[in-house]
């Protein structure tokens, strides 16, 4: 009487690999909904599990300018810092493990959405988990046609949120991740700080996914919706307690700011959500009652100087 069609992606660029993913998302952030998926089309990956992140409609309309490029930019910067940190950590005789890698994302777009074809040719859109928890909606309303997709390999092991992008640190397992974040600020000359570190550890190495890269430049959100910029950098150092891997690493000092701007900056930082989960750029204005334009202007004008504290 009919046939079932799953959610699928188009092939990855220059490869035959594509993915099939479940009807219902299991997590979501500001820009994407996350699904469990399976690789196909590649003998080495066939049938292996993956994580499929589908960009929401408001994020894929300008794909060439924003949606997937900021995520790729964040991954590349975080990977660059991980490679430098390995060299840095090797200089110290320490019990803290220092192998770090970031999962490489692949980018493509939606090919087909879940549906039932009555008599083999009459498509009927399936009802799936809606945009909000505990709701149901047509798959076409939840997964827009040709939406952008980010695919990552599934991480085996206990998934842990080691740090957040507002200074949270897991008290038992966060020693290396927080030292790595401090190092990224130092090694980049204050240009960035990699935070929001989550993933798995096997006791000798860490594999992280979906990092937040906080920009010390003039543009808030340059590395995506979790880039809290200079506000996030200052918040990190307000809460950071250095360990042996932080020896002789620079910290930020605020310069080139008026007393009035400094007061507003402090208001924004002090009112940032203090939580384990990720915080998004739009929440800086919401939590502090400071207009979005003023939040962006202070990010543009304020300077952070990377210096070594004696």
From TrEMBL:
Domain named Alpha-type protein kinase: residues: 1-254
A Gene Ontology molecular function term of the record: ATP binding
SUPFAM superfamilies for the chain: Protein kinase-like (PK-like)
Keyword terms: ATP-binding, Kinase, Nucleotide-binding, Serine/threonine-protein kinase, Transferase
Pfam families reported for this sequence: Alpha_kinase
Protein name: Alpha-type protein kinase domain-containing protein
């Amino acid at each position: 009487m009919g046939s079932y069609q799953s959610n699928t992606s188009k092939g990855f660029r220059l490869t035959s690999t594509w993915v099939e993913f479940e009807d219902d998302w299991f997590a979501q952030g500001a820009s994407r909904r996350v699904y469990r998926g399976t690789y196909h089309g590649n003998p080495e990956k066939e049938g292996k599990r993956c994580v499929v992140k589908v960009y929401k409609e408001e994020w894929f309309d300008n794909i060439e300018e924003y949606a997937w490029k900021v995520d790729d930019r964040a991954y590349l910067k975080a990977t660059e810092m991980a490679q430098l940190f390995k060299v840095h950590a090797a200089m110290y005789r320490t019990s803290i493990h220092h192998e770090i890698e970031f999962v490489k994302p692949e980018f493509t777009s939606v090919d087909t959405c879940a549906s039932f074809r009555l008599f083999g040719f009459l498509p009927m859109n399936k009802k799936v988990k809606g945009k909000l928890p505990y709701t149901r909606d047509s798959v076409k309303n939840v997964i827009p046609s040709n939406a952008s997709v980010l695919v990552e390999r599934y991480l085996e092991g206990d998934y842990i949120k080691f740090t957040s992008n507002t200074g949270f640190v897991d008290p038992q397992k966060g020693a290396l991740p927080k030292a790595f974040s401090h190092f990224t600020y130092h090694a980049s000359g204050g240009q960035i700080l990699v935070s929001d570190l989550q993933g798995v550890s096997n006791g000798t190495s860490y594999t992280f996914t979906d990092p937040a890269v906080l920009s010390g430049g003039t543009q808030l959100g340059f590395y995506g919706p979790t880039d809290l910029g200079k506000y996030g950098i200052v918040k990190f150092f307000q809460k950071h307690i250095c360990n042996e891997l932080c020896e002789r690493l620079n910290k930020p000092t605020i310069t080139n700011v008026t007393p009035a701007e400094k007061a507003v900056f402090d208001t924004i930082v002090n009112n940032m959500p203090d939580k384990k989960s990720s915080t998004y750029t739009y929440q800086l204005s919401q939590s502090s009652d400071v207009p979005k334009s003023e939040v962006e202007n202070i990010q543009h004008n304020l300077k952070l100087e990377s210096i070594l504290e004696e």
